[in-house]
Amino acid sequence: MKEKEIVKTIQEWWKEGIKGLKTKTVEKFGFDTSLQKIEFGNFLLIKDNLFGGYDLKIKDKDKDLDNLPYNNNKNSFMHLEALFKQNIPEIHSDELKSFNINTRISPIIIRNIKLTQSGLSQRYKIELNDIEKGPDEKWLDKSIDFKKILICLHEYKFTLKKYNEFSEVNLNSELETHFKHYFERVAKSVGKQKGLFDIVLGDMMFVIELKLASSLKKTGERQRASGQVKQYITEFNSRNFLFLVAGDKSDKQDKNVKSLEFEILKEFKCYYYYLEAE
Hints:
Blueprint: H1 3-16, E1 20-21, H2 23-28, E2 37-40, E3 43-47, E4 54-58, H3 74-85, E5 90-92, H4 93-97, E6 108-110, E7 113-117, E8 123-128, H5 146-154, H6 160-165, H7 168-179, E9 186-187, E10 199-201, E11 206-212, H8 213-216, H9 219-236, E12 241-247, H10 255-267, E13 271-276
Helix pairs in contact: 9-10
């Protein structure tokens, strides 16, 4: 038999609860029964020297019966995400088996969905593994804070080439796309707030204004930036404002850049971060 056919057969036997195979069956599959351990797909056959035959086991519990990481099992995730969003609390093991999920373990983690077997039943509880994130592993609005924004910024690769070639519009667009990999809702400011800041996280949970350090070195631009922060604080009575400056190492020490940092942190008491090109 071809390996694909063997794997398919073993998958069905595994779903039925079979835990071992006779030596004759293993020989029929064409395996070398002189071996103590036989590997194929995500399965292991381990020779039972005491009672004979082979014990059937899973090689990697973080992979499904097709030997794919659970996070790569897109169909199962889409199904579970839909159930979660409809507030359906449980799923039967037979449904999971249809997606070639190994139902002999608990819990099962698929992206940010945790499946936990309910006692000895064949039902699995559906819940979030990390309650600060949605099923797709993006941070929920209620969990947004400065620390999480920093994590996102630390993962962004800002190079000297980008600093020298990008306009603020180019960099803002790339950062917006980058943030969308981490947060549930990311958008530009619109309506009455259009142009007042560049990126909105969640339902105004945090707003970000981006400037290039090369621009802020000009006194007029530095004063304009200060005015934007003051306007935001006045209009929204909130300090969930991050002023993000992107530049190189030398521009970080410019007097206008440094004075703006001091003003935002000490006088306006908002958030400030310098994204340094490498």
